[in-house]
Amino acid sequence: MSLASALKTGDLTELPSRRDEDWRWTDLRGLIRTLPPVSPKFEGEVGAGPFAADETLTLVNGHGAVELTVAAGETRVVALRLISATASTAHAGRARITVGEGARLTLLESHEGLAEGYLSEIALDIRLAKNAVVERIVLASDAADAVSVVDAEVALTAGARFAQTVLTTGARRQRIETRVAHPGAHADLRLDGVYLLDAQRHADLTTQVTHGGVDGTTSQLTKGMVDDQARGVFQGRIIVQPGADQTDARMGHHALIMSDKAEVDAKPELLIFADDVSCAHGNTIGALDEQAIFYARQRGIPELEARAMLTEAFVGEVVERIEHDAAREVARSWVAQRLGRSIL
Fold it and tell me: What DSSP string describes 150-205?
């Protein structure tokens, strides 16, 4: 069951629902009563994207497909723009990315909602050859009343390194899912995320990492803030298969709730079927430190600004883990603007 299959067949029973354990907090079947018409091919201007890069690939309304191959030993910085530009329509898009042996790719991926009320499903297939290095930075700026699903399948090989940071403001329903096949074999994985939600926005960051071999590492850190009637969802699952000894896997999720009507649902999981591993997870959900706010106000800082400063510092730990300098600056600006702070 998936949004993509429902869009293809027109069968609403193909939509995932709360009866599906992994979708219980992001029910699509209960939300979508009718499917809108297929998004048309878009011929207008879409303006500039949030990232500057050496080259840009653009997919509008799901028409066409993106194929990106980075040759062995090559280094590239590519902006991938996935745009929804027509209101009250539905589309599915595909991107396949192959990174050759010893190659390096910085993928600056933006999901841009330029219209209202759309349904979008984007599937990415990312494959890394031996010793390849990829950093994927995802900035999701969907419309407030959109339904958006992003589904990435990542396959690593020996010695590969994949780092990901997702930054999102949510949508009416939004799910950004990443599933990684981890071979061990000195491959290294980082999966990070930041969600900043207000109004009635919803964001679901779901990940699954399957360690299938000896000697692999995973580091995961997600932080979020929800205000008004927003809802944040984090589901992180790390599976250590039999024989995947000497796996080192760490997962952390931490969230701030700024309103009595806001909600955070979190489900970190470690499923370990091997010996001689080092795995841990942590999860905290709470409010801002009122004592810190009090001290800030004593120094003449207005309460709203103090709350924004503390939230910015809270999620800043994730932003600072972004390796690409220009993308890290974009992320800093995004956080500050989302929290109503000015950048000097």
Answer: EEEEEE--TT-EEEEEEEE--BSEEEEEEEEEE--TT-EEEEEEEEEE-TT-EEEE
Integer Cα distance of 324 and 245 in angstroms: 32
User: What is the SS3 assignment for 127?
Assistant: strand
How many other CB atoms are found less than 10 A from the CB of residue 37? Answer: 9
Return the axis-axis angle of helices 303-319 and 290-298, rounded to nearest 10°. Answer: 120
How many other CB atoms sit within 10 Å of the CB of residue 22? Answer: 15
Q: What is the pLDDT of residues 269-305, one digit of tens each?
A: 999 999 999 999 999 999 887 887 877 788 888 888 8
Q: How far apart are CA 114 and CA 89, in angstroms?
A: 12
CA torsion sign for 48, 145, 14, 265 is positive
Q: Are 213 and 245 in contact (CB under 8 A)?
A: no
Using an 8 Å Cβ cutoff, are 238 and 212 in contact?
A: no
Regarding pTM above 0.90, the answer is: yes
Maximum alpha-carbon separation in the chain = 60
